Structures are given as C-alpha cells and as structure tokens.
Amino acid sequence: MSDMLSAAFVTVFIATVIAQAMPLMLAAVGETLGEQAGVLNLGIEGVMLVGAYTGFVVTLTTGSFWIGMLGGAIGGVAANLAMLILNVWLGLNQIVIGLAITLIGEGITSVLYLQNYTKSPASLGQQPKLTLPGLSDIPVIGQALFQQSGIFWICILLTLGLAFALARTNWGLSTRSAGQKPSSLDAAGGSVMRTRSMAVLLSGALAGLGGAYLSLLTTATFSPFLTNGLGFIAIVITMLSRGRILVVMITSLVYGLAVAVGPALQVVGFTVPADIIKMLPFIIVIVMLIVFARSSVVPPALGAPYTRGAR
C-alpha cells in the first residue's frame, strides 16, 4: 500500500491518466461541435490518424512540440475537408463519407510511415525518437512529460472556452440551431451552410489536435493504426453527453483512469492479465452505453443534409 501512496507513483499515475484522457477529450469535443451542427462524422478515427502523423512529422522536422501540435490541427482540418465539401456543400451521405475518411486516413498514414521511416524489414519497430533542442539527453518520455503541462492547460482552457461559447453565445445558438432545426436558423437570417462549415472545420482541428497529442505526448512516437478505435469511442461519448462538453471532459477522464489503472496495479505487484488491461477501457465504455443509452439525445437534424427552401 505504501508503494501506491508514494509521490512518484501518484505523479506517474496522474500523468498517465492525463495522457490517455486528453486525446479522447479533444476528439470528442470536436465531434460534439459537429454533431450539434447536424454533421455526424464517422471519420474521426481517420482524422485523428492524419493529425497524429502530421504532428509527428512536423515535430521531427522542426524539433518543436508546439509547432507539431499546430501541424496536427492543420492536418485534421485538411482531412475533414472531404466532409466539408462532399456533405455540407454537396449534400452526400454523411455515413459513407465518414467511413471513407476513416479508411483513407488509416491507409495513407500507414503507407507514408512505412515508406519514410521503415526502410527495410530489419528496421521495422525501430521508430525515430522525438528530441528537443538542448534536451537530447532526457529520455523521450521525460521530454513528453516536460511539454505536457503547458499543452495540457492550453487544451483545457480551449475546451472550457468552447463549452462556454456553445452554451452562452450567439455562435453557439446558431450551431445548435443548425442541428436542431436548420430551417429556423435559415428563416432567422443565419446561414446553415456557413455554420456547419465552421463546425466541421473546428471538429477537424480538434480531432487532429487530439491525434497529435496522442503521438507526441501519450506515446511519443507514431505507428500505423495508432488510435486503435479511439475515434469511435469519441463518437460514443459524444452521443452520451447530449451536447454537454463538460460531460465529455468527465467521461474522458473516466476513460483515462480505466487505461491507467491496469499498469498501476502491475507496478505495485498485482498480477493482471494483459488482455484484461486492454479490454478494461472498452468494457467501461460498453457499460456506460448500456446504462445511459436511453437518456442520450441527438440533434433531430443530425445526418440530414440541408437544402435551402426544401421541404
């Protein structure tokens, strides 16, 4: 028990919870903005992978985690352009487009990584390390923790700001109207297309930011299929949160606790099968889905393209 209460153990445990929860929270907040505007994006998984790979490459190139995070956000926006053009502008099926974005994101990031960072079969698994100028003697995990504090607080403030904006500002009212009853927004003089476009771009930026956080600060590297279903968990959390970003934050923290508890038990001497550790977060998500699914509410216009003047 004394090992579990040691300062070092508690510090590492909290850092692990944050590192696991933040990518999910950012992606789920982005999906929340999109769904509140009436756009269901099943491509969050692919968008996160593009953001993770872009952030990884930009950080290796520039040596800056901060620029890497920005690169991840830009990569997420670029990946979500397909949803913007094909659905919001052209009115094509959101589900088909979202699944296509996931498949393309998984494929293109895997191919680019294997071509550029694994030159031969013998080099598979030898992944490049992320280093910072002047801190090359610190292990890469230490560098990630060194950077994590500032980026963590910026992401938290950004999320809280979006929560306030969605609930209390005219922009938030327009966004929710685009998902609740877009014809009312249109009749009031607002633009459904512009509102949904902004929501999709913000959603892509946040999902890309979550992917970059995952590759730069959670794992400190990139590997194919790095997200491992995290984007789909973000969609589930979004639907259970009923558009409340604070609930998204709390649920993401619960996920982080579920991921961190397995390694923590192993550190203090409890023998836990590795398969159980991997299954635990998904079991918790399934239990939450069973318990709260009936109380979940999605916007009435979610998934329905809007054409001005159509009835």
Automatic annotation (TrEMBL):
Out of the domains of life, which is the source?
Bacteria
Q: Which UniProt keywords are present, listed alphabetically?
A: Cell membrane, Membrane, Transmembrane, Transmembrane helix
Question: Which CDD domains does UniProt cross-reference here?
Answer: TM_PBP1_transp_TpRbsC_like
TM segment ranges: 6-27, 39-59, 65-88, 95-114, 150-167, 198-216, 222-240, 247-270, 276-293
InterPro entries listed in its UniProt record: ABC_transp_permease
Q: What is its main location?
A: membrane
Report the subcellular localization: Cell membrane
Q: Under what name is this protein listed?
A: ABC transporter permease
- Name its species: Subtercola boreus
Q: What is the lineage of its organism?
A: Bacteria, Bacillati, Actinomycetota, Actinomycetes, Micrococcales
